[in-house]
Amino acid sequence: MWVCLETVASQRIPVIVAGGVTVALLGAATFVAVMHTLQLWQVQRRVESVEDELTQLADEILPVAARRLREGASLATISAEIPSLSNDVPFRILRLFMKEIEASERQREAAMSACANAAGRMQAMAVGMLADLREMEYRHNEDVLGDLLRLDHYTAQAGRIADSIAVLTGARTGRRWTKPIVMESILRGAMSRISAYRRVRLHSTCTAAIVGYAAEDIMHALAELMDNATKFSKPSEDVHVHVEQLSSGVVIIVEDAGIGMKPQVLERAERAVSTTEPLDLVALSGTRLGLAVVGCLARKHQLRVRFRRSPRGGVSAVLRIPAVLVTQPRAEDEPTVRNRRPVETDSPRSTQPASQSSAARLPKRRRGQTLVSSPPPRTRHRVETKPRADAGARFNAFRAAVRPDTPPTTAD
Hints:
The chain crosses the membrane at residues 15-38. The chain is 50% helix and 9% strand. The protein contains ten helices and eight strands.
């Protein structure tokens, strides 16, 4: 304005026009600068929002979504449970991630289902073969009894491997007993499923029994612990099994004199059998497969398994069976005997000296008899036969299912 007043009249109009243009340009520049500042602020806010949602996605949403997918939840269910995302990029990342995880879980479930079906067929074949072998053990004479019992033992070990696969794949495992099984039969059944059963020494005065629905799984867990103890100790060393009955349940200690465990290995073993840690198939190896099976069975029945250093230099595995799985044997339970002959013949193996084999000190069960809970004694008839060398005594010892003071039963 001052410039216009000081300018001569003939030049005022151009000066006014130039001033107006300058003011307009300054206003436009100011407006553009303000708009750019606002846009920059909006972009910065959006970037910060995306960063916040990406952080939430990585730290909170994705772990929850992965866990729910592994538990079997559908995409629609998970989408309704997780917090909503306002930005499109994190949402697309989440959807892509969930689809990939779902496809991976479907493939894993299909593989597990195939393994479970294969394990079921192996279990059925093992059970059928054991039934046929035990029928043959009854029908054939002593000339082939040792070979039949050897095949029986190998088949029992193959059945344990099939049961282990079934446990790891979540399939049905083993036989369901309808009656309580006495602790002595549980221990002997576990011994019969390992190769080095002759090295196992039992120290038990427990008269309790295990409920039928859990007996097979506890027998399997004990077999895995005994098998580990025999594998990781010298062939010349015995494995001692101690049983103690408490008010809170039954405690079984499997003690070896092996090479022991380093602290970090002991910690991994504790995690493998923990009831709180889920099964991680990726972390399994050939040497820890048995412990993973024990861990699955422990989580199923709330068993507690602990490892500690043994006074004999090796490792002691302590298995605690809760009181809810412990009961007393029923005195009215009768032994199940599948005899077809009118009279059972006494075998010379009942008088075999104990010094011939460490397993010969164990009680013996007649062929064809299944696990029972403390049967009462029954009378039998004695038929004299020609004595001969017993080819199957050492293999028949681990199949004993009656108490030491109970004579074998016969059927008319």
